[in-house]
């Protein structure tokens, strides 16, 4: 999952970014509203954390602009102001949630998890495709009952694919959800990790689950 953190307090920005990365999110961060708007207009994010008071453009203005452009990224607003009027203004502008500083990181993390759930969806802890089981809470992966050991990045890739099972995912879309803008790896990095996953999940199995769609990308299906 890819998250944008827009917070002009650099220490807080660094803490939030590193904490989210430790939870295996891919994170982009910036320190002004102008930058935040550029990020949100140029990439697909699963959630954004926007401070209201930022230089260049405040968070409410950023929020209004992306909603006008039909960008529906879930947004949590951060602010030091705790009045009812401020909360109403944020929610009316299109915010999904509102968090007043100072706050515990654990609360922000929990609110992000809520935002990432699909509407009216009971959060799934296990996804199954054929003989593959991917457990979201424990990061355990099984193929035909046998445990498969994956690295953090391999699991993140498999998690995104199994959550979108049956959907053809382009290399660009996969890369956007796994790496941030600072990533300077090779252009075939997705192909490399797909090869790793195939070796661990499909090799020696009669039924292959990871398929290449020529010219389009990859799909996980029976």
Cα shape:
elongated
**Mean pLDDT reading:** 88
Number of helices: 8
- Write down the CATH class of the largest domain: Alpha Beta
What structural class results from the helix and strand content?
alpha/beta
* Fourth CATH level, the homologous superfamily of the largest domain: Response regulator
Q: How does the major sheet shape up?
A: 5 strands, parallel
CATH architecture assignment of the largest domain? 3-Layer(aba) Sandwich
- The CATH topology annotation of the largest domain reads as Rossmann fold
Unreliable parts: none
Number of domains: 2
Q: What is the helical fraction, as a range of percent?
A: 25-40%
